[in-house]
Amino acid sequence: MKxxxxxxxxxxxxxxxxxxxxxxxxxxxxxxxxxICASDLAALRGDVSDYAPPVVMGHELAGVIVESxxxxxxxxxxVTVNPMLSCGVxxxxxxxxxxxxxxxxxxxxxxxGGYAEYMRMPKHGVDTGKLIxxxxxxxxxxLLFLEPLGCCLNAMRETFFKDSVAILxxxxxGLMFTQLAKRAGLATYVVExxxxxxxxxxxxxxxxxxxxxxxxxxxxxxxxGGGVDTVIxxxxxxxxxxxxxxxxxxxxxxxxFFGLAPExxxxxxxxxxxxxxxxxxxxSWAFSRASLEESKQLLIEKALNFEPLLTDRFPIAQGLAAFxxxxxxxxxxxxxxx
Length: 338
Prior knowledge:
The chain is of the alpha/beta class. Helix content is 30%, strand content 27%. It has two domains: 2-149 and 287-337, Alpha-Beta Complex (Quinone Oxidoreductase, Chain A, domain 1), CATH 3.90.180; 160-282, Rossmann fold. Strands 3, 5, 6, 9, 10, 17 and 18 form a seven-stranded mixed sheet that branches. It has a six-stranded parallel sheet with strand order 13-12-11-14-15-16, with helices on both faces. Strand 17, helix 12 and strand 18 (333-337) form a beta-alpha-beta unit.
């Protein structure tokens, strides 16, 4: 089978690999689609370190069981995965905080993932509930968003909201936050430098969109009377994004730095100024089992519109071009398929 392998920083290649062999309790997933995540792009650049190359990347996946050696899994079932395989018994796992488990391994990070024609889900992952079986009514084009939507839902639970929110970035994550914010009844403003992505945000219900120019920022400040109650930074949290977030939030407001940051990026605050500004600073990442279950239910209910998000498809054989496309932020979501 063909697979996209992250060999080392700045090195991605297409490999011919054997179809994974199964041990007792394992299952084999045939891929339909797998989305390229910003974390994969960051790993390739060398900005994040929670990957163990060489590894087949890919964790936002949609597929079908084609072989099962597990009694609870049948062939033909439509599935995706919770890509964090944890021990299932420690205090963190017992409290639905698997991401803090000391033994956690990530599909597409440490274990071969979905940028391939087939993927093995090990018995331990099935036994601990990390194989997510869904009804056939959820097409692959929506199912691949279950995991990233779960990340957004987790952040929505953790963030302090009042009446208004500014979402920085209108990539796939920012556009899901846009829809969730509108469902929550919030005045929703999206700040995005790319016109085609601002247009999608407007289609999906953003009250107003702005570019990142000084004039755009000033307009948002004026419309909101000095700033929004909450900022969710759904973009790369570099110096410019951090500065922008503080410009558009009001005193006493909440800032959630959801997006990844370049290696070595620091957030520096003057503690006296911070004290009197009363800002609530936080970062949300990943998901919980509960947020993935909620995500699954929203997909079943067709509660969100994913059609404008999935814009670019590449076969695995053109995986390097797919990564270039995603990195250049053409379209919105880039996916690969067999």
